Amino acid sequence: MKKRKKRKFKRIYWLLIDLAIMAVVLILLLYKPARYNPFALAPAGLQQNQVHPYLTHDLSTQLYNGLQSGRPFDLVIMQKPLNEVVAFSGWPKQAEGTNFSAPEVFFEPGRIVLMGTAATGGVDFVVTIAVEPTLSTKGLLNLKVTTVKVGALNITPLARLIAKKMYTERASDVYVDTAAPSAKIAASLLNDESFDPVFVFEGKKVRLEKITIEQQKLTAGLKLNQH
Q1: Tell me: the pLDDT tens digits for 103-161?
Q2: How much is the average pLDDT of 215-221?
Q3: H helices within 70-191, ranges in order?
């Protein structure tokens, strides 16, 4: 009789432990970082999918003037107006049955942090991805993903495995123009591949020579690529 009671007590005990673990995991998954507030980013008078003046009046002007000078120059990107641009880029977007919406970008010393809402199965989760861009001595850029979180739960190792698998499968099933900037960026983010950071703006090739990330500000050192 005592043995039966003991076994019953053990079953209840482990059941309570399992429930407690499930509750903690659920709380971690549903956690919303206090600084994540994308709905405060919308500028007054701007409609969805409308081109933000920051792109046309600021960033484009910086690029144009820098290229016209023919000398190396800095492109300075500020966090607040960039987030306004991102907020009006046509969200939500769907991938693999999950809706992604309300993205917000943070510039921190040495890294870029992207937060967004992933909706799946009727539940919303805040996903956080941290990227540390680095330039090698040969001038190759690597967009290394250092952290992936769902809520407060760190899933970085699992996310890396899934990303590599997705990248490999997509590369084998669909033709990908590996020379396209978007393909190079995807390969770096998903498969940890470095690439030559040369981009085209108004028919001119521009090389990224340095990148500095401070609180709320990113500075890209650029120059005309003569090769």
Answers
A1: 999 999 999 999 999 998 888 999 999 999 999 999 999 999 999 999 999 999 999 99
A2: 97
A3: 79-87, 156-173, 181-191
Q: How many domains does the chain have?
A: 2
Total residues found in the chain within this entry: 227
- The pLDDT of 14-40, averaged and rounded, is 83
Name the residue range of residue 13's domain: 1-30
- Regarding whether 177 and 134 lie in a shared domain, the answer is yes
Tokens of 67: 């290229």
Q: Can you give 162-226 as a three-state secondary structure string?
A: HHHHHHHHHHHHCCCCCCCHHHHHHHHHHHCCCECCEEEECCEEEEEEEEEEECCEEEEEEEECC
Tens digit of each residue's pLDDT (9 = 90 or more) over 61-110: 999 999 888 899 999 999 999 998 888 777 888 877 789 999 999 999 99
Tell whether 96 and 128 lie within a shared domain.
yes
Angle at 154 between CA 149 and CA 157, to 5 degrees: 100
Q: Report the C-alpha gap between 78 and 219 in whole angstroms.
A: 9
φ, ψ of residue 160 in degrees (nearest 5) = -65, -45
